[in-house]
């Protein structure tokens, strides 16, 4: 039998060989690697030799080796029937961490408009201060639930989804599991055909895994946000804790005042204003992020449970494919 080998130092990632040879595949850098043992069936040797000769950098090598096909087939069957093992990411990679709150708070700071400008419409300092507090409650504090939703969305996008949600991108855990299992299946099929000398008939979707997101994560992420809103109220500090963000100021102008008993006079007329300090409002944003963390809609336990279900379902699919392949052998 023959074996195909790749000198990755010479490979320039042109991709032509991977298109023509089923036991070669591209890695994330575009360079090719051999699937499994690299065993070439006798019926494929001529085609593969042509591919080797066409490599522009001579990165491919085809060598003849003695292989005990019967013994190798026995080893292969034993390897195929070993249970799947998974190495999921550590909890630090997907948990909602307290130290993330400042990052999320900074990201939502632009969600509300805080001009930091004075509003001179009041006749006394106390009325201006009351108006400022009311503006904070009505225009900023009242948005806490909506801001919490933004924090949750950012958490899902930046941390949770790369582990719990399926996406065909490098670094996504579920996609990585699929790619590993597909590579193993291709290796098993290639070796089986090489050792038995026969072409194995496979369903068109044999190298496709249906299990991606389980019902569990769909139910959790589609859950009503009323639950989160209630928990946010439990953990968020009252509006009065943030009233230090309101400042008052006064200014005056000289106005002419007419008197019935004499000449007009020039007098000072005072106007009072409130002003909401943007820097102080940032403390409110951080508290919203902290309250969202405390509410704990998504925790590492939630993600672990999703992965448990995913592993169980993907293992069932894997066993069905292996059983089918063993029957063909």
What percent of residues adopt helix (DSSP H or I)? 40-55%
Question: Structural class, please?
Answer: alpha+beta
Number of domains: 2
Order of helices and strands: EHEEEHEHHEHHHHHEEHH
Largest sheet: 3 strands, antiparallel
Instruction: Trace the largest sheet across and list its strands.
Output: 4-1-5
Please report the total strand number as a whole number.
8
**Overall radius of gyration:** 34 Å
> Beta-sheet strand percentage?
15-25%
Q: List segments where confidence is low: pLDDT < 50 over at least 5 consecutive residues.
A: none
Count every helix, treating DSSP H or I runs of 4 or more residues as helices: 11
Average predicted confidence as pLDDT: 85
Distance between the termini: 19 Å
| Global morphology | elongated
How is this structure best described in words?
The protein is an alpha+beta fold. The protein has two domains: 1-67, 2-Layer Sandwich (Alpha-Beta Plaits), CATH 3.30.70.20; 70-328, no CATH class. Helix content is 49%, strand content 16%. It contains eleven helices and eight strands. The chain has helices at 16-20, 45-54, 69-80, 101-108, 125-140, 144-164, 173-196, 215-221, 226-235, 278-295, 300-328; strands at residues 2-6, 24-26, 32-34, 39-40, 60-64, 119-122, 246-259, 262-276. The strands form three sheets. A three-stranded antiparallel beta sheet has the order 4-1-5. It has a three-stranded antiparallel beta sheet with strand order 6-8-7. A two-stranded antiparallel sheet has the order 2-3. Strand 7 and strand 8 (262-276) form a beta hairpin. Helix 6 packs across helix 9 and helix 7 (173-196) packs parallel to helix 11 (300-328). It is elongated and about 125 Å long. The relative contact order is 0.16.
